[in-house]
Write a structure and sequence with these properties.
Layout: E1 11-14, H1 18-29, E2 34-37, E3 52-53, H2 55-62, H3 67-73, E4 75-76, E5 81-82, E6 85-86, E7 99-100, H4 103-116, E8 121-122, E9 126-133, E10 136-143, E11 146-152, E12 154-157, H5 164-169, E13 175-176, E14 181-189, E15 197-202, E16 205-213, E17 216-223, H6 236-247, E18 253-263, E19 266-268, E20 273-274, E21 277-279, E22 285-286, H7 294-313, H8 323-346, H9 351-364, H10 367-378, E23 401-403, E24 408-410, E25 421-424, E26 443-446, E27 448-449, E28 453-456, E29 460-463, E30 467-470, E31 476-480, H11 486-497
Parallel strand pairs: 1-2, 1-12, 2-8, 12-21, 25-26
Antiparallel strand pairs: 3-7, 4-7, 5-6, 9-10, 10-11, 13-19, 14-17, 14-18, 15-16, 16-17, 19-22, 20-21, 23-24, 23-27, 25-30, 28-29, 30-31
Length: 504
């Protein structure tokens, strides 16, 4: 197998769910060719699935100028929680609430964006084999026209928790086995509860009843095990019987839109990258969908990976930049999985869990604990490892109000082009000349900051910096509080944007 280095072929993305679609849009914004594949015959066959976006995910979409599409279709959520215990996001330092929006609706918007940017989906196409060398990948697929071989530059596995590609690569998927089963139904109810039920504990299990759309409710019945074979599809009668056994009523359940089951099995791929094949989304991690993390983790994987893969394929950065995707996201995802496993203990049928839940409920009533857990669940506290000790390094840049020479803007608005931004707020030192070697790869913006201080989740209030280098995913890679350390700036630019194109 050989690859034309002048035309290395598209990035092949297996899986056109939220992770794959987000990655496709990120690559197309930087003019990288992509080929999206999905084993399903069409969109929507998997039901409504996840039902919300966390604030950080909306921030990332806002950094590309598309958050309004999601905000227009969804509604602010009052259901942020930690193992069913209500969290208050109001004190968090973000412009956005959690959003009630069905995964099917999120996918539809992302699909429209991908199509607009030139990344349509090939449906009913399954990956059956993968080969790679230093130059590219070859992917064998079964599709409507039979078996064929596709060539590309990289392959990204966004093909779900049972990922065929992960198995073909032999990547380990260690973790913890299931200890409970949850039956889920999106149904109509003749006699819904007066108030939402969030993991309400009963002798036979736990019950959740949440309205997800006018006239439609999501019911989740949590119990130790299924009476039916775990591999069997959930039937309406099984769902009704489980709900009635736990809650003492079926709430007048009828007309199911979607029925499914899930467990609390938690696993994480040992490696997110194997040469020219990369894992993202559920292919890289599975868990109990408590706290609304799964879809959001996948989208955040895509935002971390997309700009790096684009920079490598555009010849702007070395292939080693992709190693930072594993280094950063494997650690962050691992921390989230630990927190989810902790929540799974709180929602177990063990009677001791009720006592533990009571204690945690009182703790969450403390402002500091609510803010701590809220920032984690909302995705606002992520910090990637960066050299240096400044509290902003590695964290997401606050969306501060700024003014350029002729326009009021927000910091997130500077990232619409999906390029790194060197933001100079000093009003004294121009960084244009210092960054001239990267002028073809970054945007240099001089502006005035409206606020003297910035609120940084997980840190608190800090003085507004004099200058910051912001990666395309919104994380800070270099900071200056006064006279800029140009050696450190050049090192950061080289690390994240590749070598300078002109002598320094």
């Amino acid at each position: 197998m050989s690859l034309d280095t002048d035309n290395p072929g598209p990035v092949i993305i297996a899986g056109a769910g939220p992770t794959g679609l987000t990655l496709a849009t990120e690559l197309r914004r930087r003019d990288v060719d992509v080929l999206l594949l999905d084993r399903q015959p069409h969109r929507g066959v998997d039901g409504s699935r996840a039902a919300g976006l966390q604030p950080r995910t909306i921030e990332l979409l806002d950094q590309r100028g598309v958050a309004d599409r999601f905000l227009a279709l969804g509604s602010p959520s009052n259901l942020p929680n930690f193992a069913g215990i209500k969290l208050d996001y109001a004190p968090l330092s973000t412009r956005f609430p959690a959003l009630n929006i069905l995964q099917s609706e999120t996918e539809q918007i992302l699909d429209e964006l991908a199509t607009e940017l030139g990344a349509p989906v090939r449906w009913a196409t399954s990956v059956t084999d993968v080969r790679q060398n230093a130059e590219g990948v070859e992917v064998t697929v079964d599709g409507p026209d039979g078996t064929e071989t596709l060539s590309g530059s990289y392959l990204v596995a966004c093909d779900g928790g049972r990922s065929t590609i992960r198995k073909l690569l032999g990547v380990g998927f260690p973790g913890t086995d299931a200890t409970m089963v949850n039956l889920l139904g999106d149904v109509e109810l003749e006699d819904p509860p007066e108030q939402p039920k969030q993991l309400e504990r009963h002798e036979a299990g736990l019950i959740s009843v949440l309205q997800i759309q006018p006239g439609w409710y999501r019911i989740v019945a949590t119990q130790r095990e299924r009476q039916a074979d775990p591999r069997d599809p959930v039937t309406f009668e099984e769902m009704r019987a489980a709900v009635e056994k736990i809650a003492g009523t079926d709430f007048g359940m009828h007309t199911a839109r979607w029925l499914s089951s899930f467990t609390d099995a938690t696993r994480q791929a040992e490696r997110y990258r194997v040469g020219r094949v990369v894992l993202a989304g559920d292919a890289a991690h599975i868990h109990l969908p408590v706290g609304g993390q799964g879809l959001n983790m996948g989208i955040q994987n895509a935002f971390n990976l997309g700009w790096k893969l684009a920079a490598v394929l555009r010849g702007e950065a070395p292939d080693t930049l992709l190693d930072t995707y594993h280094d950063e996201r494997h650690a962050v995802d691992g921390d989230v999985l630990k927190l989810i496993r902790a929540q799974s203990l709180l929602v177990s049928e063990n009677p001791k869990a009720a006592d533990l839940s009571e204690v945690v409920t009182r703790l969450i009533g403390l402002d500091e604990v609510n803010r701590y857990l809220g920032n984690i669940q909302a995705g606002l506290d992520i910090r990637y490892p960066m050299p240096g000790n400044h509290p902003l390094l590695g964290r997401r840049v606050p969306d501060a109000d700024i003014r350029t020479s002729n326009e009021d803007k927000r910091v997130f608005g500077l990232l619409w082009s999906a390029k790194p931004v060197l933001l100079d707020l000093s009003a004294t030192a121009s960084l244009t000349d210092a960054a001239a070697g990267w002028a073809d790869r970054i945007d240099v913006v001089a502006a005035e900051c409206r606020a003297r201080t910035w609120e940084v989740p997980g840190v608190g209030t800090i003085p507004a910096p004099a200058a910051v280098l912001i990666r395309p995913d919104g994380h800070v890679a270099w900071v200056s509080d006064g006279d800029p350390d140009l050696t450190a700036l050049h090192q950061a630019l080289t690390t994240w944007c590749g070598p300078a194109s002109t002598p320094l």
